[in-house]
Task: inverse folding
């Protein structure tokens, strides 16, 4: 009984502090569905880190509509079922104004109808499956390059730079991996560059000797690898162990400090096509890298930059909308014109971003050097 | 397809097979002797790798010093888990115990996410040197180390169980607890010893994983699933079966990946399991009536 009384007293105290908090403006809540567990947990966490920096900067400058931004983060684990459950919870229980996520294309695809049904904007900063923006879902926006856009931007330059006559693919066995391979093959076929082998591996794979052995006997001039940090690090080290002489071009987060640290000297000579690198030129990026380092004590990678710009795009849209009314935010998102560390970003009629800067980087001595740039062109 | 490719695939398969065998060994031991389906095995496996990464990367210990230190911690953790959770449920049905191990797994994985983060980690071996060529077949030094340590650990475990007094006591307790107690065998201590041994074997496999590949908390679930596949293949509770099942699964995945398609390598294990359950439900070396040794 005594304990109960003490508990009640505690609750009353809590209630009192809650009452004083009401005097402050209600925060604007943004729901993030990102993988915090599972095979892409690390990359999902990177998105959240970028979003956190953006939210902190915005709140320091007075928030949106005079109210602070609050991030409500849910773990979608890159799985459609978990991401749908997370979306339902964020919408009904957490009452978020905008959704951001859900990282993996398959997961985002599953969340899109939920956003549409609840008439709530959904912005992804990562999912690159081309068909997502072809679905005609007006509540969905994509602040990321698609597989086809990456292929179109890089394929020609890559063949010219490496003088490759034969290529091989090694990609993760999902929408992103298979989609990217198909897009590159489309361009290479037109250029009469032969594709000798295409190998796919599962998300949970940790040993790549088997597909790499197949690539080794195929002896391609160039190997294009589509993989996230965890798989890419092991894969590159094993390719070096097997003494595969071919040039390797990576698609994914290949310039993050974690990747460079894990792979060590074996990373030297790698080429990577990235939508962002901390080594990118420009004052806007230099400021972002400085602030990110101050907050997280590491250099930002592709996913952190995407989390940062996506959160900024959402915040500016809410500001432009003048309220947290979903339809007003949706209309404001269509007017997006945001200049950040990744370029001058706008959405086309299908809500696909353009203006994004793409970079070809070469890794040498544990650092990424920019070797070439391309801009994602409007294509609708 | 060249002969050298075949040999490379076979060797790759043996390396992964050794991993599978070592991972499954502890799981099979705990199930066969204690009748506990330990779903936390994958998490304990990852924990071994994480601790070894901290010891070698952050504390700068050499691998030969880090392995015994981590194994000692894992042993202690095994004793604590057994005394704190499992000893209280010794007479409980298998299902509540299984639920407890699932809860333990969730707890361990999330604690690791909190303490170590999501970043994949390496265990420093000091063996980053040149790989070894056997004709056209290549093997890295860290893989040779992993095979060597696995083989030693497997043989040591087998000797312990079949040729020592402690091993005989273990088998006696789990065959006939009352008779063993009457014969003066300290039952509580044997339970504690067995679970700690299983935990330590899981930790050792995790250390080797971090030495050859990378280790992060998301590995817990696939590792546990693979270990279950292996012990179903080999025969639940049979230690030689766990070793045979592990090598078989490693080879089957590697050859399937090499000659057919790498896209569906994970499916191979499950196809094998379905076949085994259809034609030999007790597994390759499992005898239906006995679960021991």
Result:
């Amino acid at each position: 009984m005594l304990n109960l009384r003490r508990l009640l007293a505690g609750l009353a105290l809590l209630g009192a502090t809650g009452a004083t908090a009401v005097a402050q403006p209600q925060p604007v809540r943004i729901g993030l569905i990102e993988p915090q567990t599972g095979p892409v947990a690390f990359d999902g966490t990177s998105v959240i880190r970028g979003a956190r920096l953006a939210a902190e900067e915005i709140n320091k400058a007075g928030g949106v509509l005079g109210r602070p931004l609050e991030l409500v983060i849910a773990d979608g684990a890159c799985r459609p079922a978990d991401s749908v459950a997370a979306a339902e919870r964020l919408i009904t229980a957490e009452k978020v104004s905008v959704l951001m996520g859900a990282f993996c294309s398959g997961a985002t695809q599953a969340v899109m109808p939920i956003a549409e049904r609840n008439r709530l904007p959904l912005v992804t900063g990562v999912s690159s499956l081309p068909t997502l923006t072809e679905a005609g879902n007006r509540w969905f926006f994509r602040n990321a390059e698609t597989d086809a856009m990456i292929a179109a931007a890089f394929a020609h330059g890559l063949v010219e730079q490496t003088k490759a006559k034969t290529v091989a693919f090694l990609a993760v066995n999902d929408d992103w991996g298979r989609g990217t391979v198909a897009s590159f093959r489309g361009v290479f076929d037109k250029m009469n560059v032969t594709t000798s082998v295409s190998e796919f591996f599962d998300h949970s794979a940790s040993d790549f000797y088997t597909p790499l052995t197949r690539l080794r006997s195929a002896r391609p001039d160039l190997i294009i690898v589509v993989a996230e940090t965890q798989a890419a690090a092991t894969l590159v080290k094993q390719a070096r162990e097997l003494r595969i002489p071919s040039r390797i071009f990576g698609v994914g987060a290949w310039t993050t400090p974690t990747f460079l640290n894990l792979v060590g000297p074996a990373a030297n000579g790698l080429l990577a096509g990235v939508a962002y690198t901390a080594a990118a030129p420009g004052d806007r990026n230099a400021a972002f890298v400085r602030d990110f380092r101050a907050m997280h004590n590491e250099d930002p990678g592709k996913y952190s930059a995407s989390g940062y710009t996506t959160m900024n795009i959402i915040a500016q849209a809410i500001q432009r909308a003048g309220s947290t009314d979903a339809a007003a935010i949706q209309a404001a998102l269509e007017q997006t014109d945001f200049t950040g560390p990744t370029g001058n970003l706008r959405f086309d009629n299908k809500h696909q971003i353009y203006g994004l800067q793409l970079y070809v980087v070469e890794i040498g001595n544990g650092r990424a050097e920019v070797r070439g740039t391309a801009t994602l062109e409007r294509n609708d | 397809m060249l002969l050298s490719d075949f040999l490379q695939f076979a060797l790759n398969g043996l390396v992964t097979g050794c991993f599978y065998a070592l991972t499954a060994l502890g799981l099979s031991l705990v199930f066969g002797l204690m009748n506990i389906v330990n779903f936390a095995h994958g998490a304990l496996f990852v924990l071994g790798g994480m601790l070894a990464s901290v010891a070698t990367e952050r504390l700068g210990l050499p691998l030969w010093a880090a392995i015994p230190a981590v194994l000692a911690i894992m042993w202690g953790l095994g004793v604590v888990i057994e005394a704190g959770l499992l000893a209280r449920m010794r007479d409980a049905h298998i299902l509540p115990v299984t639920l407890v191990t699932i809860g333990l797994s969730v707890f361990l994985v999330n604690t690791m996410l909190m303490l170590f983060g999501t970043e994949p980690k390496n265990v420093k071996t000091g063996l980053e040197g040149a790989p070894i060529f056997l004709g056209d077949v290549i093997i890295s030094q860290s893989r040779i180390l992993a095979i060597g340590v696995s083989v030693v650990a497997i043989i040591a475990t087998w000797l312990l169980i079949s040729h020592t007094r402690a091993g005989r006591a273990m088998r006696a307790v789990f065959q006939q607890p009352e008779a063993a107690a009457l014969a003066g065998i300290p039952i509580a201590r044997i339970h504690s010893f067995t679970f700690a041994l299983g935990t330590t074997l899981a930790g050792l496999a995790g250390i080797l994983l971090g030495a050859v590949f990378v280790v992060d908390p998301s590995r817990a679930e696939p590792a546990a699933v693979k270990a279950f596949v292996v012990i179903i293949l080999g025969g639940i509770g049979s230690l030689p079966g766990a070793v045979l099942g592990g090598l078989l699964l490693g080879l089957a995945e590697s050859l399937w990946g090499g000659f057919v398609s790498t896209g569906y390598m994970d499916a191979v294990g499950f196809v094998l399991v379905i076949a085994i359950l259809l034609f030999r439900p007790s597994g390759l070396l499992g005898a239906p009536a006995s679960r021991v040794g």
Notes: The radius of gyration of chain B is 19 Å. Chain B touches chain A at residues 1-2, 5, 8-9, 12, 15-16, 109, 113, 117-122, 128, 131, 138, 140, 209, 212-214, 216-219, 221-222, 253-254, 257-258, 261-266 (CB under 8 Å). Residues 3-125+134-279 of chain B form one domain. Residues 80 and 181 of chain B are 23 Å apart (CA to CA).
